[in-house]
Design brief:
alpha+beta; GMP Synthetase, Chain A, domain 3; 4 helices; 37% helix; globular
Length: 103
Amino acid sequence: MTVQATIEKKLADDYKPLHLEVINESSNHNVPEGSESHFKVVVVSPAFTGKNLLARHRMINATLADELKEAIHALAIHTYTEDEWKEESAGAPMSPPCLGGGK
């Protein structure tokens, strides 16, 4: 299993997220092609309700402790409750207007 797939599975199992993104950002850094060492995670979960940012980050770090010891060099963590996510994202973005076509 890839590092990314492992992260996705662990976060999904532990937090039952309403929204989960695990983005491999390794290609943005000076690492060999195909590396899995730099990640960004976005997790929206009821598990974060009533928890401050530091507590949420500690939760994610605990879940990914093994990966942080061995495979992950950098991890950007973005955690939200459902209400925070709705406020932050304000729903799905609008599609861009059509700039041409047959008209």
